[in-house]
Design goal:
This protein has a two-stranded antiparallel ribbon with strand order 1-2. The protein is built from 5 helices and 2 strands, in the order αααββαα. By secondary structure, it is mainly alpha-helical. The protein folds into 2 domains: about 15-75, Arc Repressor Mutant, subunit A (Orthogonal Bundle); about 85-120. The longest helix is centred in the last third of the chain and has 21 residues, at about 85-105. It is globular, with a radius of gyration of 16 Å.
Length: about 120
Amino acid sequence: MIIRIDFNAADPIYVQLRNQIVRLIARGQLHNGDSLPSVRALASELGVNMHTVNKAYAMLRQEGYLKLDRRKGAVIQVERDDKKTEMTRINGHMEMIVAQAICKEISREDMLRLIGEMYDMFDF
């Protein structure tokens, strides 16, 4: 598992970590049942505080991407709610993205092309 942290990025480290793990799942590089490194091991590998990794893992657990098992540690376990629930959740995120695009005069066609390219990037 390759994770790279940008210590100069605007996003907090725990968000970068969470986002990269979600991308690894989407790309098929992490699968249900795969174990993630322990909080201590990943923190040491990345050179970050254990609380930072713990916060990212907690966020992933809360969002339904992993479960914490006392014996196995953090294990990928993507919970798939019904499509309507997922669409409602995603709609909340996308509304702001579309609003920003409109403010910056990015066309609907450009946005649809961009989304298509992103799906292609994940080979979906």
